[in-house]
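RECORD TYPE: inverse folding
INPUT: C-alpha cells
STRUCTURE:
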C-alpha cells in the first residue's frame, strides 16, 4: 500500500506526486512556499486547490516527524 500511496498525484495541474512532495519536505521544505518552489505543487493554473492537502501534510510531518497515512484536507 505504501508504494501506491507515494504515487498519488497531489497537484494535478503540474502532475506532482505525493512522493515528490514528501521528498522535498524531508530535504528541508518546511514551509508551503518552499514546497511550491521546489516541486511546483500548489502553483498551477487552478489556483492551488491542492494546497488544502499540502498544508495538513506538512503540518503533520513537522509535528510528528512522519507523514500521515491519509491526508485530511483543510476545508
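DESIGNED SEQUENCE:
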Amino acid at each position: 500500500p505504501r508504494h501506491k500511496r507515494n504515487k498519488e498525484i497531489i497537484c494535478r495541474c503540474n502532475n506532482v506526486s505525493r512522493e515528490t512532495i514528501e521528498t522535498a519536505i524531508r530535504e528541508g521544505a518546511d514551509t508551503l512556499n518552499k514546497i511550491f518552489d521546489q516541486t511546483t505543487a500548489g502553483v498551477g493554473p487552478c489556483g492551488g486547490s491542492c494546497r488544502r492537502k499540502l498544508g495538513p501534510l506538512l503540518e503533520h510531518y513537522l509535528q510528528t516527524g512522519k507523514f500521515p497515512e491519509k491526508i485530511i484536507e483543510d476545508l
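NOTES: The radius of gyration is 11 Å.
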